[in-house]
Amino acid sequence: MNAQLEQFVVIFLGIFYEAIPFLTIGALVSAGIHLFVDPAWLMTKLPRNPTLAACIGSVVGVFFPVCECGSIPAARSFIGRGAPAQFGYAFALAAPVINPIVLISTSVAFVGVTGWGFVWWRIGLTMLVAILTARSIPSPTTSITAPPQAQAHVHTDDELPIVVWLRHAASDWLDMLRFLVFGAAAAAIVQVFVSNDWLITVAANPWYAVPALMALAAIMAICSTVDAFIGLALLRTVAPNAVLAFLVFGPMIDLKSIPMFIGAFGVRVTLRMIAMTAVLTAAACLCIGGLGWV
Amino acid sequence: MGLTIRRISMVTILFALAGILSFRTATGQMALYIHPRYELLVYACALVVFLFGAVSLSSRTKPPALASIFLLLPVCLAIGITPKPLGSAALAGQIHALNAVAPSAKTTNPTDTTTDRAQWDLYDWAIASSIDITPYAGSVTTLEGFVVHSPDLDLPVDQLMLARYVLNCCTADAGGVGMPVVWANPTQYASDTWLRVTGTISVDSRAGVPRAILLATSIVPIEQPRRPYLLP
Predict the structure, then answer these.
(1) In terms of DSSP bridges, do strands B194-204 and B211-221 run parallel, antiparallel, or are they unpaired?
(2) Which terminal residue of chain A, N or C, has fewer Cβ atoms less than 10 Å from its own Cβ?
(3) B88-221: which CATH topology?
(4) Closest residue on chain A to B104 (Cα)
């Protein structure tokens, strides 16, 4: 078989096998929210103020240790059950970083090398970008709901709750899976045909380093649970503020998650998310680098 | 009738995927794609996917048509193509990033002088080289890896590159580590041939920056290891 095709298959299946357990967790959580969270309770507990809702959404990830494969379907369920859209958007963007597994892996990777500062920058900047991005997107005019198959479920009283839960989860899972497969294939194709070497070369220039590393993060589509170790390796050749951009932007937006965002929130919201997160992350990291804060 | 066929197809694909996830993990082939730390998670996922298939059998709702088609891609690739790890061809796009490793990602400290350097792998030597290789000149070591021949490596005619991948998560983040090996006839070993090389570490300052090279005293072709990637 052609060497590039072989390489595509190995990378595609690697992304797929690694992501699918997290998508499954996300679908189970999403179905749990859909079935067991009372919309009236959500409406009373969450603030209707979009900024406050986005702030809360950006930290709820500490209770859901999943990457973007799990956070996107869960965010869709939150919004579908009555949570403010800004809460769901901020949760979807921030949860891949603001969760216990990623916070531990980032600390393990960086504290011994750069001290705690880098870890706090990652947490703070992720929350800030997620909140501002979520706040900038207006609430949808049409409701964001579970996939049609999940809504169309007809269940009888004699069905066990676990069966109903699994049916809903299966619908969510199948709905998001096509976007995961498409995104994984796109990421694998780009990795095979676009050499990372030129991006690393471009990143040697301090002005281009931030956007170059953001592009690299989007192309590599690495799971946020381990990207800190890749960032640490990059720190040897690339400026720290560019590595920070890699660690903030990558978990929010990558080739694998973009189709999933489109599936969950639509093209317009996704495009705004990409534009806002890219501009905010780049601006913040260039300022941080220029001021010598990392 | 159409709906029944679609449901049966969907359930078959789900059962096939659950089987693939379980089989690949049980046989160790999953380690060709992802870090072994995820194995338990993949087993649990296989069980849930199986349950998804089981509940879909009795579902009264229409399965999404596109989902079956998209799910067919990974299932067909997994069944139809013999599992292989990343090899020398994939290194071509990241030659300049070779040995760009993170020292603190390693659970052991390879620069600790009490560790047995004969047992160090290519990852340990890449970390040592990233700090200062000079104190390690003269160390005897045995390394395993696959052969890479590429003009981009710019190696002298008496050298071959012995390389391996370091895997943090999955094959999407695999980064290469490698060391040039000095041997009288390096072209006798084709790219992707797995070798066990014993020799003495020397320092090559040809490119301006000191880097480790291995003066080989013995080279033995070996089978590809069960776990071909090095793990932090």
Answers:
(1) antiparallel
(2) N
(3) OB fold (Dihydrolipoamide Acetyltransferase, E2P) (2.40.50)
(4) A109
Q: How far is CA B225 from CA A12, A94, B20, B194, B195, in A?
A: 22, 39, 21, 8, 10
8 Å CB contact of A18 and B34 = yes
List CB contacts (< 8 A) between B96 and chain A. Answer: 197, 200-201
- The alpha-carbon gap from B217 to the nearest alpha carbon of chain A, in Å, equals 32
pLDDT of residue B109: 54
Strands B211-221 and B175-182: parallel
User: What is the separation of C-alpha A9 from the centre of its chain, rounded to a whole number of angstroms?
Assistant: 24
Mean pLDDT score, A136-160: 65
- Give tens-digit pLDDT for A1-15: 688 899 999 999 999
Chain B contact probe: residue of A24, A179, A234 with most B CBs at under 10 A: A24
Which pLDDT does position B5 carry in this prediction?
A: 82
Q: How far is B136 from chain A (nearest CA, A)?
A: 21
Q: Which residues of chain B does A31 touch, with a Cβ-Cβ cutoff of 8 Å?
A: none
Domain boundaries, chain B: 2-80, 88-221
Q: Which of B51, B89, B175 sits opposite A3 (nearest CB)?
A: B89
pLDDT digits (tens, 9 = 90+) for A80-117: 888 999 999 999 999 999 988 888 888 877 887 788 88
User: What share of chain A in percent tops pLDDT 90?
Assistant: 43
Two structure tokens written together for A242: 């560019």
* Chain A partners within 8 Å of B74 (Cβ): 12-13, 16, 181
| Averaged pLDDT for residues A173-200 | 82
Q: A181 and B100: CB-CB below 8 Å?
A: no
Picking from B173, B177, B230, B231 by the largest number of A CB atoms within 10 A of its own CB, the best residue to mutate is B173
Of A161-175, A186-200, B27-41, B83-97, the range with the highest mean pLDDT is B27-41
Q: What angle do CA A20, A28, A84 make, to 5 degrees?
A: 110
